[in-house]
Write a structure and sequence with these properties.
Blueprint: E1 2-5, H1 10-15, E2 19-24, H2 27-36, E3 41-43, H3 46-59, E4 63-68, H4 71-85, E5 92-93, H5 102-106, H6 114-123, H7 125-148, E6 152-153, H8 160-166, H9 183-193, E7 197-203, H10 208-226, H11 232-248, E8 259-264, H12 266-281, E9 289-293, E10 301-302, H13 321-331, E11 336-341, E12 351-359, H14 363-386, H15 390-402, H16 416-420
Parallel strand pairs: 1-2, 1-5, 2-4, 3-4, 5-6
Antiparallel strand pairs: 7-8, 7-9, 9-12, 10-12, 11-12
Helix pairs in contact: 3-4, 4-7, 6-7, 10-11, 10-12, 12-14, 13-14, 14-15
C-alpha cells in the first residue's frame, strides 16, 4: 500500500498495481477525482480507511482510496494500528502537499478543519503558522515511527523536509543532511541521467481520436526501441512507459485539452516527434500538435532540493542549466521558450526553462523538432555525466555516437586520494 497527501499520482498507483490512499482535506477536490474515475472510493474516517486497506491487502485488490481528512490524522491512525497489532500495512509513503507555500494554503494543520484553517490563515496568520509547524512535528513523528516498522518514505521535493526542519521536527542526521532522500536522489535522478523525462504533447484539434492515434504512434516507437538492444536500465523505463501509454486512454487521464505526458528519452522523443509530424503530413492526424514537457525534466530545471539534487559535484547550487536550455532551444527553432521561477518547490528555490514546438506536418517542422529535442534532452544528460554519474555518461556516449555532428566535452575522473593531499 502507498500513502500520500494531495490529489496527485492517483492513476500511477493504479497502473502500478498497488493500493493507494490519497489524503485530501478538500472534499471538492476528492469528488472531482472520483467523478473522473481516478479515485475508486472516498472514505471519511481514519478507522474505516485503515480497515479498508487491510481488506484490500487480503483480497489483493488494486484500489485507489480518497481519504477525506488530514494526512497527519491518517498517519497517526496507522501508528495506532501498528502499535496495537504489530502489523505495518503501508510499504511506501510520501508527501505531496504544497509546502513551498506552507502558510497560505499549501499545508493544512491537523488541529483545524479545512474551513477553520482557511479562516485563520487570513485572520490570524501568526497563530496559523504555529499550528502548521506543530502539525509538521506530529507529521514527522508518525512517519518516523512507521519507518522503524518497515515503511519506506521519501521526500517528493516539495519542501516537506525543509519546512519540517524549520519547524524543529526530527528530519536531520548529525551531519546536517536529511534522513530521507528526495525521490530524485532515490530513483528519478537515475531516470533523468538516462535522458528519460516527462515529454508532452497537445492535439490542437481537440479531437480524442487524434490523441488516441498519438498514443498508438508513441507506443509503436517504444516497442521499436525495445527491439534495439537497450541497456537493462533502459528496458525498465521503456517497459514501464509502454504500460503507461497503453493504459492511458482507458484510465481517462484527459481533464481539459487532448494532451498526453510520457516519460521518454532523447532517441524516443525525436522519433515520436518525427512520427507525429509525418502523421500530420499524411492526414492521419487532423491538425497540428504542440510538443512541450514538464519543467520537472532532464534539462529544464535547476533545483537543488529536487531536480538537480543528485548532482553531487557541487554544481547542484548553480542556476545556469535552465538558461542554457532555453537559449539552446530557441536557437534551434523552438516555437517559443520561457524562463520562470518557483516551479514545484517555491520562489527563490528553483529556475525553470520551458519550450513549445508546433508540428504542422512540414519538412521544416520535422527537422527543427529533431534538432531542438537533441539539445533539450542532451544538455541535462551531459551535465549529469560531467558530475560523474555512470548512467548519464553511458547515455550521452550513446547519443554522441549516433547523432551526426555531435560534439561532447568529456569529463575526467579525479583521484580522490590525490585531491585530498593538496
Amino acid at each position: 500500500a502507498v500513502v500520500i497527501a494531495g490529489c496527485i499520482g492517483v492513476i500511477a498507483v493504479v497502473i502500478a498495481g498497488c493500493i493507494g490512499v490519497i489524503a485530501e482535506v478538500s472534499r471538492e477536490a476528492l469528488e472531482k477525482r472520483y467523478q473522473q474515475g481516478w479515485i475508486h472510493e472516498i472514505i471519511d474516517e481514519v478507522e474505516a480507511c485503515v480497515a479498508r486497506v487491510i481488506a484490500a491487502r487480503k483480497a489483493k485488490e488494486i484500489l485507489s482510496i480518497g481519504f477525506h481528512g488530514n494526512v497527519v490524522a491518517l498517519w497517526e491512525g496507522l501508528v495506532c494500528h501498528t502499535k496495537k497489532t504489530g502489523e505495518n500495512i503501508v510499504e511506501l509513503g510520501s508527501d505531496q502537499t504544497s509546502l513551498h507555500n506552507p502558510f497560505n494554503g499549501g499545508y493544512y494543520p491537523v488541529q483545524l478543519t479545512f474551513e477553520e484553517a482557511n479562516k485563520m490563515m487570513g485572520e490570524d496568520p501568526t497563530r496559523f503558522k504555529e499550528l502548521v509547524q506543530e502539525s509538521l512535528r506530529r507529521h514527522v513523528e508518525a512517519v518516523n515511527y512507521l519507518v522503524t516498522k518497515g515503511m519506506h518514505f521519501w521526500d517528493y521535493g516539495n519542501a516537506f523536509l525543509l519546512e519540517a526542519s524549520r519547524a524543529g521536527a526530527s528530519v536531520k542526521k548529525e551531519d546536517g543532511t536529511f534522513i530521507y532522500p528526495s525521490y530524485v536522489q532515490m530513483t528519478v535522478g537515475d531516470v533523468f541521467s538516462l535522458g528519460f523525462g516527462p515529454f508532452r504533447w497537445v492535439c490542437t484539434s481537440g479531437d480524442p481520436e487524434d490523441l488516441r492515434k498519438t498514443d498508438e504512434i508513441a507506443a509503436g516507437v517504444i516497442r521499436e526501441q525495445l527491439q534495439e538492444n537497450p541497456t537493462p536500465e533502459e528496458v525498465n523505463n521503456l517497459q514501464d512507459n509502454l504500460t503507461w501509454i497503453e493504459q492511458a486512454g482507458a484510465n481517462k487521464m484527459v481533464v481539459g485539452s487532448q494532451a498526453r505526458i510520457l516519460y521518454s528519452n532523447q532517441a524516443g522523443r525525436t522519433r515520436i516527434a518525427k512520427a507525429f509530424n509525418d502523421a500530420i503530413a499524411q492526414g492521419v492526424i487532423s491538425a497540428p500538435i504542440v510538443l512541450s514537457r514538464d519543467h520537472h525534466d532532464v534539462s529544464g530545471t535547476d533545483s537543488p532540493y529536487r531536480e538537480t539534487s543528485n548532482i553531487t559535484d557541487g554544481s547542484m547550487w548553480c542556476a545556469d542549466m535552465a538558461i542554457q536550455n532555453v537559449i539552446g532551444d530557441a536557437s534551434r527553432g523552438a516555437t517559443y521558450v520561457s524562463i520562470h521561477n518557483g516551479g514545484g518547490v517555491g520562489w527563490g528555490e528553483v529556475i525553470n526553462g520551458g519550450f513549445g514546438m508546433v508540428l504542422d506536418g512540414s519538412v521544416e517542422a520535422g527537422d527543427t523538432a529533431v534538432r531542438m529535442l537533441h539539445w533539450d534532452v542532451s544538455n541535462g544528460v551531459s551535465r549529469r555525466a560531467w558530475s560523474g554519474h555512470p548512467l548519464a555518461n553511458s547515455a550521452i556516449s550513446a547519443t554522441s555516437s549516433t547523432v551526426p555532428g555531435y560534439n561532447l566535452t568529456r569529463y575526467n575522473d579525479t583521484d580522490e586520494e590525490l585531491i585530498n593531499q593538496i
